[in-house]
Amino acid sequence: MLKRILVVIPARGGSKGIPKKNIRLMAGTPLIAYSILTAKRSKYSVDVVVSTDDDEIGRISSRYGAEVMPRPAHLATDEVTLDPVVYHAVQEKEKILKEQYDVVITMQPTSPLLSVATFDNALDYFFSNNFDTVLSGVNDPHLAWGEKNSIVVPLYAKRLNRQYLPLHLRETGAFFISRRDCVKENSRFGTRVSVYPIPENESVDIDTPHDWWIAEKELLKKNIIIRIEGYKEIGTGHIQRGLLLGYNLIDHNVHYVLSSKSDIGIAKIEESHFPYSVIETDQEMYHLLEDLHCDILINDMLNTTEEYIKQCKKRNVRVVNFEDLGEGGRYADAVINDLYEKQNSYKNYFWGSEYYCIKDEFLLSEPSEFRDEVKEILVSFGGTDPSNLTAKVLECVPQVSSNVHFTFILGMGYSENNHLSLKSDCIPPNVDIVSNVSYMTDYMKKADIAICSQGRTMLELASMAVPTILLAQNEREQNHEFGYLKNGFLNLGLGEEVEKGTIVETLKWLINSKQIRAQIRNQMLRLDLKKGLQRTLRIIFEGGKDDE
Asked: Could you tell me how far CA 416 lies from the centroid of its own chain?
């Protein structure tokens, strides 16, 4: 049998903490509208009444589909509780309807985050258990103290971490469900009472400006999918940038997507504890866009196709691509190619190192100091080093200088066991080989010279002002226009084709060329690499150059 359900939203006009609170725009919508719309979108058929003493609240409530019930002056004072207000609204509505309701729900206009799904689930819970009253609560366990016999004492038996504390449900104003016969002038409680736990992110009650700020942040959250790849052939740069973006999108819901071949990437995302999915086909990607109600899709997987981007755009998704030189880029909302100089005039493309997203450790670190004598050379070829340039440079070390120390840093995708030249009896005494490095800045600050590939590590070294010799991993890297003399790099070309003698002679020359090293360092110090992340985030959220 269908139940007649009345939702009463009490909304007085005399808010003091936040003036005109109930009708102020929160994320572009009047605060009271959220409760009205949640009730009206329920799978249950409900009547919605707003009890108010304020004409402006009444007009706005009517605009969003609620019936307005004028509240008498004696029920609109600060001292009056909600019980008589709700009772009055129910009685007046039943006089008009000439029928009695079965269930009365009080919804506060100050709980804008309550979802329709939670509201419906609470009603399911109420009806299936035959309760008299069910009110909303949030689990809020904390170590608490109280007063007993004028002495402050702990309200817990044992100190535990928050996640191990017992259930502690704090009431919220989201809903108060009662059987009609329990609604009286001084109470809405029946005998059989329960608290329905709502998600923490739906539990905010707007009492203070701080509450308002939190709720608006939650309402403005975007659902963002970051599709990335990370395996031996393409390295880990896409994974690092994807994670850097995720850590800086804490105000939003971030979900990663990788293909099954991205073994290194999957391991790295698992360590981060972000949610992620593994897919085999683009069709699976399209389903994820729909299932996760994606607002923004970030592709960081090299070139995209026209068909792929058009299919993503069909899902009403904003699409932002990184390092994309494919046909799909023309159809994306924005393409950011921080390693390339301008290659076309399309307005949706953003070129150059000013969009490089640098990790926090480089933002916080001072550049390396200049030393007249070279004592430390750093060698790092990224996460996977597919061309095994690490071994090639290692074999050059004995011909350079025994007075210079070398530090070789291996990425997480580089397998030392697969390279015979890295066996302990082949390693010169002035060489240290390290892996699983947490803070690259610790090593870069000590370096007088560095050798790396023409990928993201070169930008990090530039931010640390370390004179650097480049050996490209592949032809695509050679197109990374940042890695040339104008920005302070000695580029030897495609690493596989560079002779070991060239590497040796270049190192010797740079070691002995104090003035050249000083000039290179000064060129790097003039580069603007600190604001790239800010610029990139503006583009992701529909901004661009004109917003700076």
From this structure: 34
| Cβ 487 vs Cβ 462: under 8 Å | yes
DSSP three-state, residue 8: strand
Please write the tens of the pLDDT for every residue from 396-421: 999 998 899 999 999 877 765 455 45
| Percent helix, percent strand, percent coil in the chain, to nearest 5 | 35, 25, 40
Pairing of strands 296-300, 349-351: unpaired
For residue 360, the surrounding DSSP H or E stretch is helix 360-364
**Gap between the Cα atoms of 104 and 173, Å rounded:** 15
CA neighbours closer than 13 Å in the CB half-sphere of residue 254: 20
For tokens 């690493």, name the residue. 495
147: CB partners within 8 A, 6+ apart: 153
pTM listed for this prediction:
0.81
Active site residue 456: no
CA end-to-end span of the chain: 61
The amino acid at residue 68 is: V
Determine phi and psi for 532, rounding to 5 degrees: -60, -40
Which pair of tokens denotes residue 462? 């530039």
For residue 388 the two structure tokens come to 């095994």
Catalytic residue among 4, 159, 180, 456: 159
pLDDT digits (tens, 9 = 90+) for 42-53: 999 999 999 999
CA distance 117 to 45: 14
- The Cα–Cα gap between 255 and 224 comes to 6
Ranges in the chain, pLDDT < 70: 1, 162, 164, 415-425, 543-548
* 504 alpha-carbon distance from chain centroid: 45
Q: Give the count of beta carbons closer than 10 Å to the beta carbon of residue 343.
A: 12
Which has the closest alpha carbon to 135: 177, 192, 103?
177
Contact of 64 with 37, CB cutoff 8 Å: yes
∠20-22-23 over CA atoms, to 5°? 75
- Tell me which H or E stretch contains 123: helix 116-128
Cβ atoms of 55 and 22 closer than 8 Å = no
Long-range contacts of 499-504 (CB under 8 A, 24+ apart): 500/392, 500/395, 500/396, 500/399, 503/392, 503/393, 503/396, 503/451, 503/469, 503/471, 504/396, 504/399, 504/400
Here the tokens at position 187 are 């109470």
Q: Are 12 and 53 in contact (CB under 8 A)?
A: yes
Number of other CB atoms surrounding residue 439 within 10 Å: 12
